[in-house]
């Protein structure tokens, strides 16, 4: 489904002698649930931003179902087929959870009635009662689950999550991983990056990144 074809990334003002991504190759199929581990600065976030079409690789390409992902906020593949949960929770604090859930749809230019889907995704993450709450009323673990719910609004083919369990206690980290397992069983491929070894048993395959190079463990 997703093919990362020998991508390299050289940042213009890098502090390193090596590239942030060095000829990275990766194939993700529909049933996959994969993790990318590796030390801080090894290139995980750069890889995820490139797959999501938010960064342009210096070399190589990213292809989703035969179509090359072109970087830019308006890329239709990026906004409709791939959901990206960035580090942190990134919710808008002045808006209700409901409005936060609709936000990516507005960005994608969709203007339908998504109330039913909002209730559905909140039920999936076990937070069906918070639709009209503001983010400040929720705990860190709950906000992380809302960010996941928001990423599911458009039933993505691929869900990317950069460090989805960072700063969560074990109970909440496992809840998030169980949620990814359910999403994966329902047909969405999942790719996460993590520093957290205890969540790796939830994943079907594990990659390791070191100085921009990616290897399957
Ligand atoms: N905009 C940028 N300009 C220059 N160098 C950058 C930029 N963004 C990242 N880098 C460098 O690229 C390398 C990879 O960074 P990246 O954020 O992808 O690593 P990471 O594995 O996600 O780290 P962490 O686990 O700490 O989030 C790092 O050495 C970083 O300093």
TrEMBL record:
This is ABC transporter ATP-binding protein. Signal peptide: none annotated. Pfam families: ABC_tran (PF00005). One of its GO terms (molecular function) is transmembrane transporter activity. It comes from the Bacteria. Keywords: ATP-binding, Nucleotide-binding, Transport. Residues 2-217 form the ABC transporter domain. GO terms for cellular component: plasma membrane.
């Amino acid at each position: 489904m997703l093919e990362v074809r020998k991508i390299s990334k050289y940042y213009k003002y890098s502090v390193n002698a090596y590239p942030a991504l060095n000829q990275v190759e990766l194939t993700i199929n529909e049933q996959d649930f994969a993790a990318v581990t590796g030390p801080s600065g090894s290139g995980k976030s750069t890889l995820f931003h490139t797959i999501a079409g938010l960064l342009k690789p210096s070399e190589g390409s990213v292809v989703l179902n035969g179509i090359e992902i072109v970087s830019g906020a308006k890329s239709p593949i990026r906004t409709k087929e791939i959901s990206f949960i960035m580090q942190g929770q990134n919710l808008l604090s002045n808006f209700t959870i409901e409005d936060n859930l609709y936000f990516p749809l507005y960005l994608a230019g969709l203007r339908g009635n998504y109330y039913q889907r909002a209730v559905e995704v909140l039920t999936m993450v076990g937070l069906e009662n918070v639709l009209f709450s503001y983010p400040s009323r929720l705990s860190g673990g709950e906000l992380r689950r809302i960010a996941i719910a928001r990423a599911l609004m458009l039933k993505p083919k691929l869900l990317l999550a950069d460090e989805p369990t960072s700063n969560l206690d074990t109970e909440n980290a496992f809840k998030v991983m169980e949620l990814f397992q359910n999403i994966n069983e329902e047909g969405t491929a999942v790719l996460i990056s993590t520093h957290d070894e205890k969540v790796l048993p939830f994943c079907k395959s594990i990659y390791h990144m070191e100085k921009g190079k990616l290897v399957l463990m």
